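Item description
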Amino acid sequence: MYRISKGLEQPIRKILTWLPSLIITLFYIPKALDKLLNSNQTDKILANSNIMIATGVFLLISTALFLYRKTMLIGTFLLALYMTIIVYIHMYKGKPYEVTILIVIATIMTTYIRNPKSFHHKTLS
């Protein structure tokens, strides 16, 4: 079995814990920019350009909260809420929704990988 030297173990651990977050971010940022830059999309349920712009801003803010450690749970909640709504929209339109469910799960799991202690319930003694 290969052994990583002590000097490399910490940076590799940090990279591996942030890699899923980077992948999730690379999913949400283009979606947000698409809604901001191409806000007159007509194939959506809500074809209002103001709603598309607001959704893009919401996604950018939620992603920023997701990346910052102190607000990670809030950002995760907002991103998971957004994608859950997208799951219901896909179900309503009869589109495949399995991948969107996986994105919801991946968003939550990414937060767990970065900070597992935030998912533990604290009891008052």
Remarks:
- The first helix runs from residue 6 to 37.
- The radius of gyration is 18 Å.
- The mean pLDDT is 88.
- The CA atoms of residues 38 and 44 lie 12 Å apart.
